[in-house]
Design goal:
alpha/beta; globular; seven-stranded mixed β-sheet; Pyruvate-ferredoxin Oxidoreductase, domain 3; EC 1.2.7.11; EC 1.2.7.3; Transketo_C/PFOR_II; six-stranded mixed β-sheet; 2-oxoacid/accept_OxRdtase_asu; Rossmann fold; 22 helices; 4 domains; oxidoreductase
Length: 657
């Protein structure tokens, strides 16, 4: 990913620039390389100094039939000269590589936006696959938008002809041709992309040169063709930023780096046990490249083995970490109870996706909150933290490690498919600003004994945490397991009194974390505002932008975003009661709303979305406007699902793990 420094003088930082942003969506068949094209356009945008947010959107099928709507893959990027919090509500430019990509995505394009279409792919066969009766490039049905069409396929073949590639290999270069055109449109430097291609195809220099030729040809085509004022290069100024080292980072990358940083701050080796599942697999991939930081990664044979291996690592004195998505978290549930009963530190990452069951493997959702807070047999509390953006996953990972080792407890960290795959600029932090929390494993002298001289491995400190005893430590032989324990000694004890006391102790330990986390702040607006939008997780961006717009228009609105889902911040109830109306947008059917109502008896209104797509700014703004006028009704809080643009009755997605 991109690494860049963006230095500003005080005059530049304070300059009164007119903020500008553009939303571009690349869409094509799964084999057209749209994710790679979007990723490299993101790299060039970051190096240009723009703020940005991305949204990769790809199908669940391993390989859908080519040219069908089921196989359409898209990558959206919102970039500009001001703060960017979301990937954008509506694209300004849609690059459609075939009819299916056009059909699935054109409805999202803003009125007057630009369509760039590869007319070489609009054959009768491909039109039929996409469900078109007539060619939309010729029948006037796209009159709402500016249509630019040319034969990208043929232009690519012409550009790479000197390299002697077969027709199939040559057409694989057309995503680079398209990227070259996009770089020309937005005044981007081709140099970093050329360097990347040479590195990627270092063992196949002919392919590298062919792709570079396609990239240059697309750029030259834009530079030489006369298409009128609508089709011209457009320069967007860099966004103001503090001096420092910046890079683009996805949620999975930031999460991996945060876990490594947390282990370093705790002065512990880290063991990661995982099993591949969409969209959580990327974390295993990133951590496997960080062995020099004392990281051991283990791809287990199944989800249960992965978490049990991580628990074993924690028992042995390392920091155990495991990761999955909703279906895999369900399989790990019994082992989570074991970690809670044995009171061992463990970080469990849940990259949420649409459910239940296999559900929507590649689409985003926030529907595992009940599972995170309540989803285990018995009274089995554990802390739950939610990251709000890709960059925020770094700090959330450190916080999860801190709580796990300080309180001797499993901690669940919630991200989702959007956070895991999306990218944004990240100022690389100065780690000297993070307070270390080094772990000291117990010694015989540090573990108390009772009046009979019996060792008490389940004695408690001021946080109600028990000592962390490494196996083999002289003098500290003790029992440990999933059967209920006698308070203090940890011996097996089925008595009613022992179970009641241990249950309450485990509960009080987790609830006591509320004293060790920051009080809840208002992100935008003021406490006591007429309307508060309360969110958690990846709804941060659209909520923040909606509230920012409403405040600029003079509305009395506030944004509250909760990181610590369980236990909740100590002052949250008082804060919520200060607002006139509280609305909670969630990509589920209202789970956090229910939790807030249960804990504080506040009439939180639900705004839900379960389409597998993130909220739009306009959706949240509309709900807040209704509430601001004092007419908020229960039925006004449920928005209709947006049209997907796909044919009805398409086959169910293949399992992706």
């Amino acid at each position: 990913m991109a690494t860049a420094t963006h230095l500003l003088t005080p005059e530049e930082a304070n300059a009164d620039l007119v903020p500008e942003n553009v939303v571009v969506r690349f869409a094509g068949d799964s084999g057209d390389g749209m994710q790679l094209t979007g990723g490299q356009f993101t790299l060039s945008t970051a190096l240009a100094g723009n703020d940005l947010a991305t949204f990769p959107d790809f199908p669940a099928e391993i390989r859908a039939p080519q040219g069908t709507t089921f196989g359409v893959s898209a990558f959206q990027i919102n970039f500009g000269s001001a703060s960017i919090e979301t990937a954008g509500d509506q694209p300004d430019v849609l690059v459609a590589m075939n009819p299916a990509a056009l059909k699935v995505n054109v409805a999202a394009l803003r009125d007057g936006g630009m369509i760039i279409a590869d007319e070489g792919e609009f054959s009768a066969r491909n039109l039929a696959k996409a469900g078109y009766d007539a060619n939309p490039l010729e029948d006037g049905s796209l009159a709402r938008w500016q249509l630019v069409k040319f034969n990208i396929s043929q232009l690519t073949l012409d550009a790479v002809k000197p390299f002697g590639l077969g027709n199939k290999e040559a057409l694989r270069c057309k995503n680079m041709w398209t990227l070259g055109l996009a770089l020309w449109m937005f005044d981007r430097d081709r140099g970093p992309i050329v360097d990347w291609l040479k590195t990627k195809f270092a063992k196949a220099p002919t392919l590298a040169e062919a792709n570079i030729a396609a990239l240059n040809a697309g750029h030259a085509y834009g530079d030489t063709i006369e298409m009128g004022a609508a089709f011209r290069p457009h320069h967007i100024e860099a966004a103001p930023a503090e001096p420092g080292l910046y890079r683009t980072v996805t949620g999975a990358e930031a999460l991996g780096l945060g876990l490594v940083a947390g282990a370093q701050l705790a002065d512990l080796p880290m063991f990661f046990g995982g099993y591949p599942i969409t969209p959580a697999s990327a974390l295993l991939h990133h951590l496997s490249r960080l062995k020099e930081y004392g990281i051991t990664t283990f791809q287990a044979e199944d989800e249960i083995a992965a978490i049990c291996a991580a628990i074993g690592a924690s028992y042995a004195g390392s920091l155990g970490v495991t990761s999955s998505s909703g279906p895999g978290i369900a399989l790990k549930t019994e082992a989570m109870g074991l970690a809670i009963m044995t009171e061992l530190p463990l970080v469990i990452v849940n990259s949420q996706r649409g459910g239940p069951s296999t559900g929507l493997p590649t689409k985003t959702e926030q529907s595992d909150l009940y599972q995170a807070v309540y989803g285990r047999n018995g009274d089995a509390p554990l802390p739950v933290i939610a990251a709000r953006s890709p960059a925020d996953a770094f700090d959330c990972a450190i916080e999860a490690v801190r709580l796990a080792v300080r309180y001797m407890t499993p901690v669940m960290l919630l991200t989702d498919g959007y956070i895991a795959n999306a990218a944004e600029p990240w100022k690389v932090p100065d780690m000297s600003g993070y307070a270390p929390f080094p772990v000291t494993h117990a010694t015989e002298a540090s573990v108390p004994r009772n009046e009979t001289g019996k060792l008490e491995p389940f004695s408690r400190d001021d946080k109600l945490a028990r000592p962390w005893i490494k196996p083999g430590t002289p003098g500290l032989l003790h029992r440990i397991g999933g059967i209920e324990k006698r308070p203090g000694t940890g011996d097996i004890d089925y008595s009613p009194g022992a179970h009641a006391e241990m249950t309450k102790t485990r509960q009080d330990k987790v609830l006591g974390i509320a004293r060790d986390i920051p009080e809840q702040e208002v992100c935008l607006g003021r406490a006591g505002a007429k309307v508060a939008i309360v969110g958690w997780g990846s709804t941060f961006g659209p909520i923040h932008q909606a509230v920012k717009r409403l405040l600029a228009q003079g509305h009395d609105v506030a944004h509250v975003h909760v990181r610590h889902i369980w236990p909740l911040p100590a002052n949250l109830g008082e804060l919520l009661r200060s607002f006139g109306t509280v609305i909670c947008p969630e990509m589920n059917t209202g789970q956090f709303k229910t939790l807030l109502r249960d804990q504080y008896l506040v009439d939180v209104q639900s705004l839900t979305k379960t389409s597998g797509q993130p909220f739009k700014i306009a959706e949240i703004e509309a709900a807040a406007r209704t509430a601001h006028g004092g007419t908020l009704a229960p039925d006004a809080t449920q928005l209709p699902e947006p049209e997907s643009g796909r044919d009805e009755g398409h086959p169910s997605a293949a399992e992706v793990r």
